[in-house]
Amino acid sequence: MLDNEILLDTGTNEFEIIEFFIDDLCEGKGERDYFGINVAKVLEVVEAPKGLEAAEGAPHPSYLGTMSLRDIILPVIDLAVWLGIERKESENELIVVTEMNNVITGFLVTGVTQIHRIGWADLKTPNKYIADMHTNCITGTVEIEDRFVLMIDLERILGELDPEMAERSDGKVYSTSEKMTAVLVDDSVSVRTLLNKNFESANFEVKLYTNGQEALEALKAMNTEAKESGGSIIDVIDIVVSDIEMPQMDGYTLTRSIKEHADLSQLPVILFSSLITKGLYHKGEKVKADDQITKPEFNELTGRAIALVEKYREKRLSA
User: Fold this and answer.
1) What's the pLDDT score for residue 7?
2) Can you give the residue range of the structural domain that contains 191?
């Protein structure tokens, strides 16, 4: 098992990535491609068993069927096939075992290098050429020593393999009788689109931001403007909903910054991320997030947001 908190405090705007590689035949010349994912999503790395091959009738050629891992039947994805890389086969290939949105999956790679600690500000938005490569699942790039490591959006891969994972619904329709205003923060265009649709349908006015730094600066500006008009931030914003993994500033740091601010601390904050698991729930608690919801629960999110805003309003009235 991996230790997902190697001397890493919550809310420091740093995170750790596990770097792995795929040996690419690259028209016979040979090349090594480097990739990374947040180590918080990784349960362990195991040796790949012999005989894994594409499953007949699978939803995608990258699906290699399942393998037994202690008491788990583990589905395995050949990451090279998904990325369109012709992998050079080797004797000791590895499987990176991940947990996202409470789903455990294995990804076949050539090998793993090490874990690196980096700042979210060091994660650069991929240029158009990279963004258009590899089925558009590259979320950013980071320079490590003499190479560029491409950060992979594994949730996007799993969502395309199983569309039902992309958005779960509890079947209820949530709406507030009185208009509310939400700040929604996520670096994914597709997630922002879904959030915007769901919150507008629930009678929210929506303000969208792509990362924590952008959202924090906007909230501070709104707070200043409200105070100059003789009001307060709670007159213009009711709630903040934020992803965790974002360039420039992550959701943990954004939440901590809001809760430590004299005026912004009046706002409830929900963390909405695939990183919300039992093992990592304490991280959100440490930065005083009011609620934490796993990412597929889009519909439930609006209901819990409404309940949280109403709770804060009642608390202020009784104070």
Assistant:
1) 40
2) 167-318
